[in-house]
Write a sequence for this structure.
């Protein structure tokens, strides 16, 4: 369903963030992507999400050559296939929490305020925070808005980059339970984390180090 | 050394982020500030750092009425007393990692490239990343630049808001060991975290919930 073939990503300044990655992910799998800081985890997620293109190699999703997509073709792919939770959230500063979630709906199909509210409740955001701007939200509240935004269109693939890093224990449990529910409905989840207790929820773990795959454990085995 | 007296912070939209906080921190203490997402931890740090002023109550640091400081008086206080590691890093996007650290030196006294480089090495950033801009750094690399920037002027007080949230295990150990060394030299550390293994390094833990102090454990006891 998701396949990387000899993927290389070299940034303009010569940094080789991914150095020949090959992996295959089944539809409906939940995979944890681990590895040290700077290993290339976020880079890998960006390439699978069609946000950037590899320097070499191929990225295939549902038989679509994602590595060749640009501009509106890439936007269409993302709209139909992926929900992305960014490590730095990337919320729109001049839109409220609710508007940030509804913006994703607008680009996907049609805004639906009731549904946007429902998803924000599901991730545990207090309803009186829905009208706050990102700057008026705590770190953990911003992260929850980013999660809601990625989930609201019910995408077949969830790309989650350290999705609970700013959450306290209780909020983290809420979010992971939510991921477990959508996974049970057939979603494919790629979750970047350096926390073993989060990675444990996945069915399989892959480990990156200096742009290379160093470990693929299947099924989960530590 | 650091004292809050009945501190209240109410944001313009009516959110009462801090609801009457009173606490006293000795010079040279390492205190962990814990509590759920939205509890008011970042807000408390901002008030102690003179980045914002309380709605009511007083913040005293070394007998300076920090709650009354504005503009250049507040900037002078920060320059002389605090190094701040922000939860969202807040690096200057158009300056490199090294320049971001040297900017803090420039505002404090005088730029010193050798020393800036030394601190970046101490936090574990690879030297070939020193010339990268924040957008060209991984999440963990950006966080390390933010840490270096807070430490480079050797401030008497370190205000650290989730300083290792984006770091892998090894980098986290490096940073915490570094904090332990500066603490041994007499620094006062206020560290916001929701990770018990990080809080454990502190001498004392205070817990916030909905803008109030609910627990003060002294000495460390769980
Ligand atoms: N635009 C860029 N230009 C140059 N180098 C980059 C760029 N973006 C990232 N890098 C480098 O590529 C490497 C991989 O970055 P990436 O963000 O994928 O790491 P990561 O595994 O997500 O790390 P972390 O756990 O710290 O978030 C890093 O060492 C980083 O410095
Ligand atoms: N500018 C603002 N205007 C209105 N409300 C705000 C503003 N900034 C923060 N808040 C609210 O104040 C409360 C406390 O925020 P704060 O950032 O201090 O929480 P925190 O304890 O640091 O949380 P986290 O662990 O999620 O970072 C939050 O519920 C937040 O929604
Ligand atoms: Mg990353
Ligand atoms: Mg905070």
């Amino acid at each position: 369903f998701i396949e990387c073939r000899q993927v290389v990503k070299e940034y303009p300044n010569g940094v080789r963030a991914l150095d020949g990655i090959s992996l295959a992910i089944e539809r409906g799998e939940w995979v944890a992507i681990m590895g040290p800081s700077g290993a290339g985890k976020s880079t890998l997620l960006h390439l699978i999400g069609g946000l950037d293109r590899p320097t070499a190699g191929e990225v295939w999703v549902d038989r679509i050559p994602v590595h060749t997509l640009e501009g509106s073709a890439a936007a269409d792919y993302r709209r139909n296939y992926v929900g992305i939770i960014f490590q730095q959230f990337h919320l729109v500063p001049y839109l409220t929490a609710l508007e940030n979630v509804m913006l994703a709906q607008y680009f996907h199909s049609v805004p639906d305020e009731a549904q946007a509210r429902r998803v924000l409740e599901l991730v545990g955001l207090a309803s009186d925070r829905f009208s706050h701007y990102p700057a008026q939200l705590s770190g953990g509240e911003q992260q929850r808005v980013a999660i809601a935004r990625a989930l609201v269109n019910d995408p077949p693939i969830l790309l989650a980059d350290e999705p609970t890093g700013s959450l306290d224990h209780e909020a983290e449990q809420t979010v992971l339970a939510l991921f477990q529910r959508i996974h049970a409905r057939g979603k494919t989840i790629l979750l970047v984390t350096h926390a073993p207790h989060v990675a444990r929820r996945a069915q399989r773990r892959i480990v990156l180090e200096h742009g290379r795959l160093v470990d693929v454990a299947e099924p989960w085995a530590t």
Notes: Residues 169-184 of chain A form the longest helix (16 residues).
